[in-house]
Structures are given as C-alpha cells and as structure tokens.
Amino acid sequence: MNPDDPRFVNWAQNLLDQDDENLEFEESDDDFRDEKDVKEFSEESFDEDYFQNEGSSSENSEDEPEKVAFFQDLPMDTSIIDDLPSGPLDAYRKRVNFDWKELKFVFERPDLLKIKINVWNTLEKDPLFQRSEEELPSEEQKRIAALQLEQFRKYKFMPTNGQKATVKERARYLMAINEALAASYPDVSVKQAIGILLFQNTLSTLGTERHKHIIEAIWNRQILSALALTEVAHGSDARNMRTTATYDKETEEFVINTPDFKAAKCWVGNLGKTCTMVLLFAQLYTNGQCHGLHAFVVPIRDPKTLLPYPGIIVGDIGEKIGLNGIDNGFIMFQGYRIPRENLLNRTADVTPDGEYESSFSEPGKILGAALENLSAGRVGIMQECANNLISAVTIAVRYAALRTQFGPSTGKELPILEYQLHQWRLFPYLSAAGVIKIFVADVAMDYLNAVEMSNTDTAIDNLRETISEIHAIISASKPLISWTCRDAIQECREACGGHGYLKATRLGELRNTVDPCVSYEGDNNVLVQQTSNWLLRQWVSVLKTGTVQSPLGTCSFLIKHGEILSSKLQLTKVEDVKNLDFIMDCYRWLITYLLQITHEKRTRVFEATQCKFTARNNSQVYAAAVLSKAYGEYVALSYYQARISQPKIKKDLKFVLVNIGLLYGLSTLDKHLVYLYQGRYDNNQPLAQLVKDAILDLCGVIKDFAVPLVDSLAPSDFVLNSILGRADGKLYESIQAEFFNNPNAMSRPKWWREIKVDNVPNLKITSKL
Ligand SMILES: Cc1cc2nc3c(=O)[nH]c(=O)nc-3n(C[C@H](O)[C@H](O)[C@H](O)COP(=O)(O)OP(=O)(O)OC[C@H]3O[C@@H](n4cnc5c(N)ncnc54)[C@H](O)[C@@H]3O)c2cc1C
C-alpha cells in the first residue's frame, strides 16, 4: 500500500437503516439477521446486535477509562507561531497574563499545527490560490477549484518523519493536511475528499488485490472519482435505491441500469464535469435474485477527452446555495456494461458463472471496515465544522472588542463586548469552539485506534463493542457539532450587525459551507437515531443483566441507574453549579432519565401497535432525539474534562479552560432544564435560577480573556479571510478599503443611460459666494 495511504476519510453515503425489523428495544440478542445485511456495509451492522456476544460484555466499573492527553509531552516550539500585530485589540490582550501561544498548544498538537501552518504558508504564496475580489460565475469557480485541486495534489505536505510513522499517525497527519485545506478552501477540500481520499479508502476497505492498480492510479494523479449513492427519490433510505447491476454470465459483465429519473444518482460531487470514474452503489442481481446494495467501480468518462462513454447520461445539477466550486452531478445508466472484476469483492463476490459467494470469516474486521467506511467522512466533517465555528467566533469576538456603541455618559462609548446581552449571545459559542476543538481532536484518535485495532491480526478484547461505541459517539457528535456550528455562524453574523452581512466578512461563505454538513454523510435527524438505538440496547442490557457494553466508558454509569435516578440535588449557592463534576452528574441523571422515558414510550407504542417501525418513529420527539443530543454533549464534555485535567497544563491556562468548560456545560444544560424538573431531579431546589446566574457570572469572567482566547484558537488572517476579523484590529481601515476598492465602487454604471431622467429641474446647489 502506498505510504501516503489515507485511511481516515470515507464518503460511504448514508447507508442508514430505516427498517422496521431493526428496532431493538426489547430483546437485543434474539433478533440476529442473516449475514448478507452485514456485507452490505450499512449502518445496520451497528444498529443490529449482530456481533453482540453475551460472554464478552464488559462489566464495567463506573470509573471511566482515563483518556490520556496524547501530546502534552511533545516539544512545544512557540516560535512556529507568528506574533500578532500590535493594534487596538491590545487593550483586551493586555488584560491577561497567560501566553496565548501556550494555550494554542492545548488546542492543537504542535506537530499537527506545524503541518497546517506549512500548508497555509504554501497556499498563500501560490498565485493559483489567490482569492478573487469579485463573485465569479459558477462555471469559473468550478474551473478554478479543479485547477487548485490538481495543484494541491502535487505538493508534498506529509512531514519527512511521516514515512516512518505508524499507519494511525500517518492518517492523523493526513487529517491535519485536509483540515488545513478545508479551513481555507472548502470546495477544493471536498473535491479532494470525495474524489481521492474517500474513493481510495473505500477501495482499500471493500476492494481486494484486483483493485490495487486503481489505488495506484489515484496516487499517480491519473484518476479523479466520485461516490454515487444518493438517488433523486432516495437518500437516507439506501435500502430502497433502485439502480441495478445485473450479472451477465455470457460476457462476464455487470449491466448497469437506471430504471427511471427517480433512480438517477444525484448530488454526487465531482460527477458534474470532472471525474472519470465513479464508485457506484447499486443493487446486485445474479440469476434473477437481488443480493442488496454493493459497490462497483465504474469508468464513466474518457480521461483523454472528458467526454462520457456511450450508455450514460451525465450532467451537472446546477447552481447551489454555496460550494459552487464543486461540480455536483447526476447520472443515469442505460444497459451500461462493466467487467465482473469491478465489483468491490472483499466481503462477497460473483463467480464467472454467476454464483453469488459470500466470505464471512472475520466479522471483527468487517465491522472495523464498516466503521471506517461510514465514519471517516463524518470525523472529517466534525473537524471542518469545529474549525468553521472557530472562524465565526473569532470574527465576532474581535469585532465586538473593536466596535463601540452607546455608553454611560457622553463621549464615553463602550465596546459591544462589554454588554452582557452580547456576551450571553456569543460566549456560549466561543466556549463551544474550545470544547469541541479538543473533543474532536481526541475522539479522532480513539476512532483511529479502533480502526487500527480492527486491522491487526491479534484478537483484541472488546473490539466489537469498542467499534459500536465509537459509531454511537460519532453518530451523535457529527449532528451536535454541525448544528452548533450552523447556529453559531448565524449568531455571529447578527452580532456583527449590518457589516456582518458583507461578503468580505466571510460569514456568508461559512454559513453556506456548513449548511449541507447537516444533511450529507448521514442526515443529522436520521443519524442520531443510531446513537439512541445503541443507548437503548445498553439500557435493555443493564435492566436484564446489570451490564453494559461500553469499553470507552461513555455510558458505563448506567450500571448505577437506580442510584442515579433516586438521587436529588442539594444546591444552595451559585458556586454549587459552577462545577464541572456537578454538570457531569446532571448529564448522567438526564441521560438515564431520558433512556427510561424513551424505553417506556417505545414499549408503550409497541404494545399498542405491535409494530416496531411505529414504536421507533413515535418515540423520537421529546425522547430519543433529545437523548442522543444530551449524550453527545455529555461525551464532548467528558473528553474535554479528561484533557484539561492533565497536570501539565499550567494554572493560568487551566483557569481559562475550566471557565469555558463550565459555560459550555451550563448553557447546554440550560436547554434541558425542563427534563430535570419533569423528572424531579431538582427536588424544588433553585436549579434554574442558579444555572442562569452562573452563566451570567461566567460571561463576565470570560469577557476579559475572550480576545486572547480567540487568538489562541484562530488561524492566520490569510485563512480567516475576513475584513472584520483581522488580528491587527484595523477594523474601520479594512471596511473603508472594502467600500472604496470593490470593483466599480465609484464608477458610473455602464447602464446609466437606461435610468437617466430627462427634464429634471436644476436643483444643483450653488454657492452664494
Ligand atoms: C452539498 C451536497 C453534497 C453531496 N454530495 C454527495 C455525494 O458526493 N454523493 C452522494 O451520493 N450524495 C451526496 N449528497 C446527498 C446527501 O448525501 C443526501 O442529501 C443525504 O443523504 C440526505 O438524503 P436526502 O437528501 O434524500 O434526504 P431524505 O432522506 O429524503 O430526508 C429529507 C428529510 O426527511 C427527514 N427524514 C428522513 N427519514 C426520516 C425518519 N425516518 N424520521 C424522521 N425524519 C426523517 C430527514 O431528517 C430530512 O430532514 C450531497 C448533498 C449535498 C447537499
């Protein structure tokens, strides 16, 4: 395998289970299904307890495993970070004693930051990556993004020690390179993710020896691909997709057909204009029998001419709300033939004479491959959204520190950052940015560990349970983070007032880039159901056997469910709630309570309808959906708490980290208070009031370090690319430059004659002198 092999991202699209057979709320181990379903690499592999083995259930202690900070021992050379230019933001920067560069190394692993800085410095100098002043037509955006991708592929960003590093470390380096690209050129990053990284990853996990030459061609820059799952009439519901690949034993080929327009593959990135090959998901038929969705490599355009081959109708879907550098396309096949070998056959194959054969020997490895296929792209989205969230809050906080409005007396205006209402709007998102940045970095390592474990030949305890738990974590986290980022960007736009609406702030681009993240790689509202189903299985297990399968410890507390649900709050003062342990206790109670009411509701609906499908669907609102959200927040906070508890973190930095952890925790908990009252956890204590008082106290504390905090989170000005977010604080200078220098700012419009009014009385003011 190529040493640059990125085993970290995948675009295996949304093989989401919506089957009524798939409801596991009562019995979790008597509903095994046949092997076929697993081999289709659907989320169902996780949704069902195929691999649940009673003997291997981990009887966890309530103590959660220690999550080790993995980079505190790396050399922290702050000289790799440029100093910030002096300017009006210094007034806030001088309020703190901590070194913002040292804080940056809590948020970013030094070696990964170095890689990212190298990417950004290289792109900043490259003429092809200079940004246009004007809005370009979408065709031109596509041309430039395609050229930029070609150029990006030529750079060697992998550090020299990368060749010697483990597969997991190389994957982490590649994630950093991709993160750097996504933060600065999202269109190019998505094109690369789909066209190269995810394609290569799927070939590695679902393909075999016979596909190695295709992987080599990818690395030799001879192929750009697309991943085609979604159809016009079906996205989340992959099982009902209707594109077929029917085996013809006479010619030893598959014949691909699109029955009608509703079954056309669509929204597929790179498909519109640029890719030459497609990774196609189609229903496999042999001898008249359907074997479900399988993956095929399908050449669609002649690489020399970029013209489609006969038997294909392919095109671009047209202009989108954003990301117009990407050519999202549609495709229909009319009796289109591909060789038998183009089936990705790691888990099932078709013999030359048309027999369907499955190989089901290593379920742990297959589940690991499924995790890699389904989750890699989601982890990429989590990183991308974390960085976009940081960009948005950086712009809004720097603007708020510079923008003055009103004041206690004439001539004494206050920066809007000083207003409590403004702090309350922005700081929960600023805190979320810090918490999520750390959470994503650490959960990505756990994800890579699980993938690595599934690729080793030695038997590993709890591997299946670990993989299922990682899948549950990611299925809650991708929605949590993309929704948080979406909401944050809108609040930041509004927090910058009218100027925030200028294109040159970049808030609009950020908004449009993050927007589809809630839909692709698993629609958020569908994806969170994976998490609640996993949690419900743990709940059933704990009720029946007193055990849970939670090797990472994210729900091992359920073993004490009785004690948790009977506990009551004892609160007297605001300091009682300004405590991370208190917040974590509240979350443990909340998750346990939500599990109880969700399970009761699901059981009630099932008893009334005898339909698992209805029971699952009618226990989402005010139950399973909230449960997944609360679990996602809890997991994010527990990773964060584990990291900031590292003794090596300096006291002054810890002060910042603890306060933002508290604000994030309390402001998310604030939205769930109704459940804490409904379940009588508060026992008539003044919980709501104390939480609100604490939030406002924390806003007042964070105000004084908000600017250096964003300095430690923010990328360089080149990456941020916002006239309101510049590190030098030259706010009005950059607004003036934008007004004065925008193309045609002061020229008379070419079409002035069309609006000219004749016979206007002479109203010109003339001087009396
Ligand atoms: C910018 C962009 C790029 C994309 N790139 C690709 C690509 O490269 N390749 C590819 O194959 N696809 C791609 N897609 C498609 C994307 O993967 C799908 O849009 C996504 O899977 C959602 O499917 P859908 O659009 O059919 O929505 P649907 O599944 O029809 O969902 C519509 C709405 O119904 C809700 N819903 C559905 N089922 C349920 C349920 N059981 N309970 C409650 N609510 C439900 C969903 O939450 C959603 O809000 C892309 C999409 C976008 C926007």
Automatic annotation (TrEMBL):
Principal localisation: other
Domain of life: Eukaryota
Any one of the GO BP annotations: lipid homeostasis
Spans through the membrane: none
Chain positions covered by the region annotation Disordered: 19-65
Pfam families per UniProt: ACOX, ACOX_C_alpha1, Acyl-CoA_dh_M
This protein's UniProt keywords: FAD, Fatty acid metabolism, Flavoprotein, Lipid metabolism, Oxidoreductase, Peroxisome
Annotated Acyl-CoA oxidase C-alpha1 domain residues: 374-536
Regions of compositional bias (Basic and acidic residues) in chain numbering: 33-42
This protein's GO CC annotations: peroxisome
Residue span, Acyl-CoA oxidase C-terminal domain: 580-755
Name of the protein this chain belongs to: Acyl-coenzyme A oxidase
Bias kind Acidic residues: ranges: 19-32
Cell compartment(s), UniProt: Peroxisome
Binding, FAD: 230, 269
UniProt cross-references to InterPro entries, sorted A to Z: ACOX_C_alpha1 (IPR055060), Acyl-CoA_Oxase/DH_mid-dom (IPR006091), Acyl-CoA_Oxase/DH_mid-dom_sf (IPR046373), Acyl-CoA_oxidase (IPR012258), Acyl-CoA_oxidase_C (IPR002655), AcylCo_DH-like_C (IPR036250), AcylCoA_DH/oxidase_NM_dom_sf (IPR009100)
Known cofactor(s): FAD
Protein family membership: Belongs to the acyl-CoA oxidase family.
Keyword Cell division among UniProt keywords: no
Entry GO MF terms: FAD binding; fatty acid binding; pristanoyl-CoA oxidase activity
Catalytic center residues: 521 (proton acceptor)
Acyl-CoA oxidase/dehydrogenase middle domain segment(s): 226-334
